[in-house]
Amino acid sequence: MLKKFKPDMICKSVLDINLETLAKRGIRYLIIDIDNTLVAWREFEVKDEIINWLEKIQKMGFKICLVSNNQKYRVEKIENMLGIPAIYNAKKPLKSGFLKASQLLHQGKKNHQTAVIGDQFFTDVIGAKRLNLFVVLVRPLKEKEFFVTRINRIFEKKILKYYEKDEKE
Question: The domain that contains 78 carries what CATH number?
Fold first, then answer.
C-alpha cells in the first residue's frame, strides 16, 4: 500500500529539483504548495532565490498554479506578489484543490504532464498520488509549523525511512 504513495522524486528544496528531468518526462504543468515549500510558514516574504526560480521555470515553458490549505488572505497576498494563479483552502489531500489547479492549468485533460511539488507527505504526496500525478517531495523550509503538521512529521519520517530502506534492497 505504501508503495502506491511513494514520491517520484525527493529533493532538499525546490531549488534542487532537476527541471530538465521533469521536462524530459513530459511534465509541462506544476502545482506547487506554498507553506514551507516556497514561503516559510506564517511568513509573507518570498525570497529572491525563489522568485528567480519561479521566473526560470516559467521561461522554460512550465505553467504554474499554487495550491495551499491556507486561508484566502494569505494565499491571495502571495498570489498577487508572484503573479501566479493560486487555489486557497484546497483541503489537501482531498482531490478538489488539485482538480481546480488542473482545470486552471490545462482544463484537467493533461494530468500525465502535471507534477505536484510540496513539503508534506500526508497532504501533497497522498493528494497528488490519488490522481496519479508525478510528485516531488521537498524538505520544509523551516521547522516551525502548525501543530498538526508537527505531529504528522513524526509519522512522515517513518514512512520516508521505509522508502529509503526499500530503495536500498
Answer: 3.40.50.1000
